[in-house]
Amino acid sequence: MKKSVFLGALTVAGLAAGAAAAGTMDDVKARGKLNCGVTTGLVGFAAPDSNGEWNGFDVAVCRAVAAAVLNDPTAVEFVPTTGKTRFTALASGEIDMLARNTTWTFSRDVDLKFEFVGINYYDGQGFIAPKELGVGSAKELDGATVCIQTGTTTELNLADFFRSNNISYEPVPIETNAEGQQQYLAGACDVYTTDASGLAATRASFENPGDHVILPEIISKEPLGPLVRHGDNEWGDVVRWTLNALISAEELGVTSANIGEMAESTDNPEIRRLLGTEGTLGEMLGLDADWAKRAIMAGGNYGEIFAKNIGEDTPIGLARGLNAQWTEGGLLYSPPFR
To answer: Rounded to an integer, what distance in angstroms lies between the CA atom of residue 269 and that of residue 272?
Structure first.
Protein backbone atom coordinates (compact mmCIF):
# COMPACT_ATOMS: atom_id res chain seq x y z
CA MET A 1 0.00 0.00 0.00
CA LYS A 2 2.86 2.29 0.13
CA LYS A 3 5.36 4.67 -0.77
CA SER A 4 8.04 4.91 -3.27
CA VAL A 5 11.52 5.74 -3.04
CA PHE A 6 13.66 6.56 -5.91
CA LEU A 7 12.56 6.49 -9.47
CA GLY A 8 14.84 8.55 -11.74
CA ALA A 9 13.95 11.86 -10.22
CA LEU A 10 14.95 13.92 -13.22
CA THR A 11 12.82 11.82 -15.56
CA VAL A 12 9.79 12.01 -13.29
CA ALA A 13 10.25 15.74 -12.75
CA GLY A 14 10.51 16.35 -16.49
CA LEU A 15 7.35 14.39 -17.18
CA ALA A 16 5.54 16.30 -14.45
CA ALA A 17 6.50 19.70 -15.83
CA GLY A 18 5.15 18.83 -19.28
CA ALA A 19 1.92 17.26 -18.06
CA ALA A 20 1.09 20.10 -15.68
CA ALA A 21 1.43 22.76 -18.34
CA ALA A 22 -1.71 21.60 -20.11
CA GLY A 23 -4.08 22.62 -17.28
CA THR A 24 -5.47 19.54 -15.56
CA MET A 25 -8.91 20.89 -14.69
CA ASP A 26 -9.54 21.86 -18.31
CA ASP A 27 -8.47 18.36 -19.36
CA VAL A 28 -10.77 16.72 -16.81
CA LYS A 29 -13.75 18.84 -17.85
CA ALA A 30 -13.12 18.21 -21.55
CA ARG A 31 -12.74 14.48 -20.95
CA GLY A 32 -15.78 14.33 -18.69
CA LYS A 33 -13.97 11.95 -16.38
CA LEU A 34 -11.38 12.09 -13.62
CA ASN A 35 -8.46 9.66 -13.94
CA CYS A 36 -7.57 8.78 -10.37
CA GLY A 37 -4.63 6.57 -9.39
CA VAL A 38 -5.34 4.09 -6.60
CA THR A 39 -3.76 0.97 -5.16
CA THR A 40 -4.08 -2.38 -6.93
CA GLY A 41 -6.47 -3.43 -4.18
CA LEU A 42 -6.62 -2.88 -0.43
CA VAL A 43 -9.98 -3.56 1.20
CA GLY A 44 -11.33 -0.52 3.01
CA PHE A 45 -9.06 1.89 1.18
CA ALA A 46 -9.42 1.08 -2.51
CA ALA A 47 -10.68 -2.18 -3.99
CA PRO A 48 -13.24 -3.26 -6.59
CA ASP A 49 -16.25 -5.24 -5.42
CA SER A 50 -17.72 -8.30 -7.15
CA ASN A 51 -19.34 -6.02 -9.72
CA GLY A 52 -16.09 -4.21 -10.45
CA GLU A 53 -17.18 -1.05 -8.63
CA TRP A 54 -14.38 0.61 -6.65
CA ASN A 55 -15.01 1.46 -3.00
CA GLY A 56 -12.96 2.61 -0.05
CA PHE A 57 -11.54 5.45 1.99
CA ASP A 58 -9.21 6.70 -0.77
CA VAL A 59 -11.77 6.04 -3.48
CA ALA A 60 -14.12 8.43 -1.67
CA VAL A 61 -11.63 11.28 -2.16
CA CYS A 62 -11.55 10.62 -5.90
CA ARG A 63 -15.33 10.59 -6.07
CA ALA A 64 -15.58 13.82 -4.07
CA VAL A 65 -13.26 15.58 -6.53
CA ALA A 66 -15.27 14.24 -9.48
CA ALA A 67 -18.48 15.47 -7.86
CA ALA A 68 -17.00 18.93 -7.25
CA VAL A 69 -15.61 19.34 -10.77
CA LEU A 70 -17.94 17.25 -12.96
CA ASN A 71 -21.13 17.12 -10.88
CA ASP A 72 -20.92 13.32 -11.01
CA PRO A 73 -19.17 11.21 -8.34
CA THR A 74 -19.25 8.21 -10.68
CA ALA A 75 -17.30 9.99 -13.43
CA VAL A 76 -14.01 8.43 -12.33
CA GLU A 77 -11.64 6.08 -14.11
CA PHE A 78 -9.76 4.23 -11.38
CA VAL A 79 -6.21 3.38 -12.43
CA PRO A 80 -4.55 0.69 -10.27
CA THR A 81 -0.90 1.48 -9.52
CA THR A 82 1.88 -0.24 -7.60
CA GLY A 83 4.54 1.32 -5.41
CA LYS A 84 6.80 1.35 -8.46
CA THR A 85 4.36 2.65 -11.09
CA ARG A 86 2.30 5.26 -9.24
CA PHE A 87 4.66 8.22 -9.56
CA THR A 88 5.39 7.66 -13.24
CA ALA A 89 1.63 7.45 -13.90
CA LEU A 90 1.09 10.81 -12.20
CA ALA A 91 4.12 12.54 -13.73
CA SER A 92 3.26 11.42 -17.26
CA GLY A 93 -0.34 12.64 -17.06
CA GLU A 94 -1.84 9.14 -17.21
CA ILE A 95 -3.67 10.07 -14.02
CA ASP A 96 -4.89 13.47 -12.82
CA MET A 97 -4.33 12.79 -9.13
CA LEU A 98 -3.03 9.99 -6.91
CA ALA A 99 -5.10 8.82 -3.93
CA ARG A 100 -3.19 5.74 -2.87
CA ASN A 101 -2.06 5.77 0.77
CA THR A 102 1.09 7.60 -0.23
CA THR A 103 3.39 9.10 2.38
CA TRP A 104 4.24 12.79 2.19
CA THR A 105 8.04 13.05 2.27
CA PHE A 106 10.58 15.75 1.49
CA SER A 107 11.99 14.07 -1.62
CA ARG A 108 8.61 13.34 -3.16
CA ASP A 109 7.48 16.89 -2.62
CA VAL A 110 10.71 18.60 -3.71
CA ASP A 111 12.81 16.23 -5.84
CA LEU A 112 10.08 14.31 -7.67
CA LYS A 113 8.11 17.53 -8.22
CA PHE A 114 4.78 16.52 -6.73
CA GLU A 115 2.43 18.50 -4.55
CA PHE A 116 0.73 16.85 -1.60
CA VAL A 117 -2.58 18.61 -1.07
CA GLY A 118 -3.11 17.50 2.53
CA ILE A 119 -3.19 14.53 4.87
CA ASN A 120 -6.23 12.26 4.92
CA TYR A 121 -4.72 9.61 7.21
CA TYR A 122 -2.02 9.84 9.87
CA ASP A 123 -0.34 6.45 9.96
CA GLY A 124 2.85 4.61 10.87
CA GLN A 125 4.64 1.43 9.80
CA GLY A 126 4.03 -1.76 11.76
CA PHE A 127 4.34 -5.54 11.63
CA ILE A 128 1.90 -8.45 11.51
CA ALA A 129 2.84 -11.94 12.66
CA PRO A 130 1.11 -15.29 13.20
CA LYS A 131 0.13 -15.80 16.84
CA GLU A 132 1.80 -19.19 16.72
CA LEU A 133 5.15 -17.49 16.15
CA GLY A 134 4.96 -16.45 19.81
CA VAL A 135 6.32 -12.96 19.23
CA GLY A 136 5.00 -10.05 21.27
CA SER A 137 7.30 -7.31 20.05
CA ALA A 138 9.09 -6.36 16.84
CA LYS A 139 12.28 -6.22 18.90
CA GLU A 140 12.05 -10.03 19.18
CA LEU A 141 12.34 -10.51 15.40
CA ASP A 142 16.10 -11.11 15.26
CA GLY A 143 16.79 -13.32 12.24
CA ALA A 144 13.21 -13.13 10.96
CA THR A 145 12.22 -13.18 7.30
CA VAL A 146 10.16 -10.10 6.46
CA CYS A 147 7.84 -9.63 3.46
CA ILE A 148 8.31 -6.08 2.21
CA GLN A 149 7.15 -4.15 -0.84
CA THR A 150 9.97 -3.09 -3.10
CA GLY A 151 10.54 0.48 -4.23
CA THR A 152 9.12 1.90 -1.00
CA THR A 153 10.24 3.88 2.01
CA THR A 154 9.13 0.85 4.02
CA GLU A 155 12.44 -0.74 3.08
CA LEU A 156 14.40 2.17 4.52
CA ASN A 157 12.33 2.29 7.70
CA LEU A 158 12.77 -1.44 8.18
CA ALA A 159 16.55 -1.24 7.77
CA ASP A 160 16.74 1.67 10.22
CA PHE A 161 14.65 -0.15 12.84
CA PHE A 162 16.64 -3.37 12.76
CA ARG A 163 19.96 -1.55 12.71
CA SER A 164 19.06 0.71 15.64
CA ASN A 165 17.98 -2.35 17.66
CA ASN A 166 21.09 -4.33 16.65
CA ILE A 167 19.12 -7.22 15.20
CA SER A 168 19.11 -8.81 11.76
CA TYR A 169 16.47 -9.81 9.22
CA GLU A 170 16.12 -11.32 5.76
CA PRO A 171 13.90 -9.37 3.32
CA VAL A 172 11.42 -11.22 1.12
CA PRO A 173 10.65 -8.75 -1.70
CA ILE A 174 7.07 -8.40 -2.97
CA GLU A 175 5.48 -5.82 -5.28
CA THR A 176 1.81 -5.56 -4.24
CA ASN A 177 -0.20 -6.01 -1.07
CA ALA A 178 -1.97 -9.00 -2.61
CA GLU A 179 1.37 -10.67 -3.26
CA GLY A 180 2.54 -9.82 0.27
CA GLN A 181 -0.60 -11.35 1.75
CA GLN A 182 -0.19 -14.48 -0.33
CA GLN A 183 3.47 -14.92 0.56
CA TYR A 184 2.87 -14.24 4.24
CA LEU A 185 -0.01 -16.74 4.49
CA ALA A 186 2.04 -19.31 2.57
CA GLY A 187 4.78 -19.04 5.19
CA ALA A 188 7.35 -17.52 2.83
CA CYS A 189 8.08 -14.93 5.51
CA ASP A 190 7.70 -14.78 9.29
CA VAL A 191 6.17 -11.31 9.33
CA TYR A 192 4.79 -8.73 6.91
CA THR A 193 5.44 -5.02 7.30
CA THR A 194 3.60 -2.01 5.87
CA ASP A 195 1.48 0.86 7.23
CA ALA A 196 -0.52 -0.16 10.30
CA SER A 197 -3.79 0.73 8.57
CA GLY A 198 -2.85 -1.56 5.69
CA LEU A 199 -2.03 -4.36 8.11
CA ALA A 200 -5.48 -3.99 9.68
CA ALA A 201 -7.11 -4.09 6.24
CA THR A 202 -5.03 -7.10 5.22
CA ARG A 203 -5.78 -9.02 8.43
CA ALA A 204 -9.51 -8.34 8.02
CA SER A 205 -9.41 -10.20 4.70
CA PHE A 206 -7.89 -13.36 6.24
CA GLU A 207 -10.04 -16.45 6.74
CA ASN A 208 -9.02 -16.50 10.42
CA PRO A 209 -8.02 -12.93 11.39
CA GLY A 210 -7.71 -13.91 15.07
CA ASP A 211 -4.75 -16.14 14.26
CA HIS A 212 -2.63 -13.08 13.50
CA VAL A 213 -1.42 -10.24 15.69
CA ILE A 214 -0.30 -6.72 14.81
CA LEU A 215 2.76 -6.05 16.92
CA PRO A 216 2.71 -2.94 19.15
CA GLU A 217 5.64 -1.05 17.63
CA ILE A 218 5.00 1.78 15.19
CA ILE A 219 8.41 2.49 13.68
CA SER A 220 7.78 5.54 11.50
CA LYS A 221 5.59 8.55 10.75
CA GLU A 222 3.47 8.02 7.63
CA PRO A 223 1.30 11.05 6.82
CA LEU A 224 -0.77 9.75 3.90
CA GLY A 225 -2.57 11.95 1.42
CA PRO A 226 -3.55 12.71 -2.16
CA LEU A 227 -1.08 14.38 -4.51
CA VAL A 228 -0.93 16.14 -7.85
CA ARG A 229 1.84 17.40 -10.12
CA HIS A 230 3.87 20.52 -9.46
CA GLY A 231 3.17 23.44 -11.76
CA ASP A 232 -0.63 23.30 -11.90
CA ASN A 233 -1.63 25.31 -8.86
CA GLU A 234 -5.25 25.73 -9.92
CA TRP A 235 -5.80 21.98 -10.02
CA GLY A 236 -3.90 21.52 -6.77
CA ASP A 237 -6.23 24.04 -5.13
CA VAL A 238 -9.31 22.12 -6.31
CA VAL A 239 -8.11 18.79 -4.91
CA ARG A 240 -6.78 20.40 -1.69
CA TRP A 241 -9.95 22.27 -0.89
CA THR A 242 -12.17 19.33 -1.77
CA LEU A 243 -10.34 17.32 0.90
CA ASN A 244 -10.59 20.28 3.28
CA ALA A 245 -14.33 20.50 2.60
CA LEU A 246 -14.80 16.91 3.78
CA ILE A 247 -12.77 17.58 6.93
CA SER A 248 -14.46 20.91 7.72
CA ALA A 249 -17.92 19.47 7.12
CA GLU A 250 -17.41 16.96 9.93
CA GLU A 251 -16.14 19.65 12.29
CA LEU A 252 -19.10 21.90 11.45
CA GLY A 253 -21.67 19.12 11.79
CA VAL A 254 -22.58 19.02 8.10
CA THR A 255 -23.49 15.48 6.99
CA SER A 256 -24.81 13.84 3.86
CA ALA A 257 -28.18 13.60 5.63
CA ASN A 258 -28.58 17.21 6.79
CA ILE A 259 -26.65 19.10 4.11
CA GLY A 260 -29.76 20.28 2.26
CA GLU A 261 -31.29 21.69 5.43
CA MET A 262 -27.98 23.24 6.48
CA ALA A 263 -27.54 24.97 3.14
CA GLU A 264 -30.97 26.59 3.41
CA SER A 265 -31.39 27.38 7.10
CA THR A 266 -28.06 27.76 8.92
CA ASP A 267 -26.88 31.13 10.18
CA ASN A 268 -23.31 29.90 10.66
CA PRO A 269 -21.24 32.05 8.29
CA GLU A 270 -18.52 29.44 7.68
CA ILE A 271 -21.08 26.76 6.81
CA ARG A 272 -22.77 29.22 4.46
CA ARG A 273 -19.46 29.95 2.74
CA LEU A 274 -18.60 26.23 2.58
CA LEU A 275 -21.93 25.30 1.02
CA GLY A 276 -22.04 28.25 -1.37
CA THR A 277 -25.01 29.98 0.22
CA GLU A 278 -22.96 33.15 0.40
CA GLY A 279 -19.60 34.35 -0.84
CA THR A 280 -17.67 33.50 -3.98
CA LEU A 281 -15.35 30.64 -2.95
CA GLY A 282 -16.48 28.44 -5.82
CA GLU A 283 -15.78 31.18 -8.33
CA MET A 284 -12.26 31.56 -6.91
CA LEU A 285 -11.64 27.89 -7.71
CA GLY A 286 -13.11 28.12 -11.19
CA LEU A 287 -16.15 26.11 -10.06
CA ASP A 288 -19.76 26.92 -9.27
CA ALA A 289 -21.15 27.75 -5.83
CA ASP A 290 -22.28 24.18 -5.05
CA TRP A 291 -18.92 22.43 -5.61
CA ALA A 292 -18.29 21.63 -1.93
CA LYS A 293 -21.90 20.66 -1.34
CA ARG A 294 -21.63 18.07 -4.13
CA ALA A 295 -18.28 16.80 -2.78
CA ILE A 296 -19.78 16.20 0.66
CA MET A 297 -22.93 14.60 -0.73
CA ALA A 298 -20.85 12.14 -2.78
CA GLY A 299 -19.88 10.03 0.21
CA GLY A 300 -20.45 12.11 3.32
CA ASN A 301 -18.09 14.16 5.42
CA TYR A 302 -14.68 12.85 6.56
CA GLY A 303 -16.15 11.12 9.60
CA GLU A 304 -18.84 9.39 7.56
CA ILE A 305 -16.27 8.19 5.03
CA PHE A 306 -13.99 6.90 7.79
CA ALA A 307 -16.78 5.10 9.65
CA LYS A 308 -18.20 3.46 6.52
CA ASN A 309 -14.94 2.16 5.09
CA ILE A 310 -12.40 1.55 7.86
CA GLY A 311 -14.01 2.47 11.19
CA GLU A 312 -14.52 0.42 14.32
CA ASP A 313 -17.81 -1.05 13.09
CA THR A 314 -16.19 -2.44 9.93
CA PRO A 315 -14.13 -5.64 9.68
CA ILE A 316 -11.00 -3.45 9.53
CA GLY A 317 -11.91 -1.91 12.89
CA LEU A 318 -9.69 1.18 13.00
CA ALA A 319 -10.21 3.69 15.81
CA ARG A 320 -10.01 7.35 14.90
CA GLY A 321 -6.93 7.93 17.08
CA LEU A 322 -4.72 10.62 15.52
CA ASN A 323 -7.31 10.93 12.75
CA ALA A 324 -9.92 12.40 15.08
CA GLN A 325 -10.84 16.04 14.68
CA TRP A 326 -8.57 18.47 16.50
CA THR A 327 -11.53 19.30 18.75
CA GLU A 328 -11.57 15.63 19.83
CA GLY A 329 -7.86 15.27 20.59
CA GLY A 330 -6.74 14.26 17.09
CA LEU A 331 -4.66 15.96 14.40
CA LEU A 332 -7.39 16.51 11.81
CA TYR A 333 -7.67 20.18 10.99
CA SER A 334 -8.67 22.18 7.93
CA PRO A 335 -7.77 25.80 7.25
CA PRO A 336 -10.82 28.03 7.42
CA PHE A 337 -13.22 28.56 4.56
CA ARG A 338 -12.94 32.31 4.50
So the answer is: 5
Q: Is residue 125 within a helix (H) or strand (E), and if so which, with residue range?
A: strand 125-130
* Segment 19-75, tens digit of pLDDT: 444 599 999 999 999 999 999 999 999 999 999 999 999 999 999 999 999 999 999
CA distance 167 to 125: 18
Tell me, yes or no, if the pTM score tops 0.85.
yes
- Reduced to 3 states (helix: H, G, I; strand: E, B; else coil), residue 22 is coil
CB neighbour list of residue 334: distance below 8 Å, 6 or more residues apart: 244, 245, 247, 248, 251
Sequence-separated contacts (24+) of 313-320 with Cβ below 8 Å: 314/44, 314/204, 315/43, 315/44, 315/204, 315/209, 316/43, 316/44, 316/197, 316/200, 316/201, 316/204, 317/200, 317/204, 318/197, 318/200
**Residue 118: closest CA among 251, 23, 223, 253:** 223
SS3 6: coil
Contacts of 153 (CB under 8 A, 6+ apart): 2, 3, 4, 5, 103, 105, 220
CA angle 105, 116, 19 (to 5 degrees): 110
